[in-house]
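Summary for the steering committee. One of the milestones for this cycle was to obtain a three-dimensional model of the protein with S-adenosylmethionine bound, which we needed before selecting residues for the alanine scan. The sequence and ligand used are listed below.
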Amino acid sequence: MPSKLDRFCAAWQRMPAYACPVCGQTMKLSGMSLTCGKGHSFNVNKKGCVNFLTRKSESFYNEELFAARRRVFLSGCYLPVVQAMDDLLSEGTRCILDAGCGEGWYLNEILARHPESCGAGIDLSKDAILQATDQPCDALWTVGDLRRLPFVSGTFDAVLNVLTPAAYHEFARVLSPSGLLIKVYPGREYLRQLREARGLPLYEEGEVAAHLSASAVIERTIHVAACQPVTEALWADAVSMSPINQDLTAQEKEEIARHPAKEITIDLWVTRCRLPEQQRSEQIDQT
Ligand SMILES: C[S@@+](CC[C@H](N)C(=O)[O-])C[C@H]1O[C@@H](n2cnc3c(N)ncnc32)[C@H](O)[C@@H]1O
Ligand SMILES: [Zn+2]
C-alpha cells in the first residue's frame, strides 16, 4: 500500500502547483523538500502534507472538533450537500482546490466522484490537515492561509469554499479563466436545534450572501434543506463539531449533549459563481 508521502508525491506529479509562500516563485519537489528558485524550502511531512505557515496559528478548530465533524459526515447527514456541489461542477473539472478544507471529507467525496481529477486542500489548522491525510484520495494537503494561497495563478478549474471565510481576490487569482467557485454557506435554520439548546437566535442570513453577490457573478444556487434524525451519539458529535459551541467548557458541552434533540436541521445554500478577473476586493467574509 502506498504511504501517505507516496500519495502526496502522486498528487504533486499530477498537479505541481505550489508557489512559494515567501516570494511567490514556483516550487520544485526534490526528495522531501519543496524549494523555490530563491532557495526558500519547506519539508513535506512523512504524514503526507506540507506546512507553509511561518508562525504557529492558535485556533479553537482542534483535533476534537474535526474528529467529531468526521463522525457526523460519515453518518451521511451532509451527503445532500456533496450531491449539490457535484451537480454544480462542470464536466471536465480537472484541478480542484478546497479552500478551508477542514478534515478533508468534502474534497475526498468530490474526488471519489471525479477520479480523473486532482485535488488540493488547504486549511489554517494543522490538526485538520493531519486528519485530512487519512482520507483515501491523493491530494496536496496543505497547512496554510487561504488569504495568501501558496498556489500558482490560474491553476484550478474549481475552488470549493464550504462554511469557511472567503478571500475572493485570491480565489480569482488561482482560478483558470473559465474556473468556477462553489461556495457553501448557512441558511437561517442551519443547526437550529444546536442554537436552541443554547438559547441562541436563528442564524442571521444575509451578510455572506451580500458579500458574495458583490464579489462574484452567481450562476446557479441549490438550497439544501433537510431534517436529519440523530442518535444520542450523533447529537453529542454535533455539539462538539460546531464552532458555535467553542466558547463552552467541556462540562457545558456535556450538559448540552445530555439533552439530545431528535433531529438536526441542515439548511445550506450551495452556489456556483464566476469571479471577475479584475476583482480586487481585499475583504474576507466570515463564513
Ligand atoms: C467551520 S470549519 C469548515 C471546515 C470544512 N470546510 C468543513 O465543512 O468541515 C471552518 C474552517 O475554516 C478554516 N479557516 C479559517 N480561516 C482560514 C484561513 N484564513 N485560511 C485557511 N483556513 C481557514 C478553519 O481552520 C476551519 O477548518
Ligand atoms: Zn521563495
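Key point for the committee: Residues 20, 22-23, 25, 36, 38, 40 surround zinc ion (ligand 2) (CB under 6 Å).
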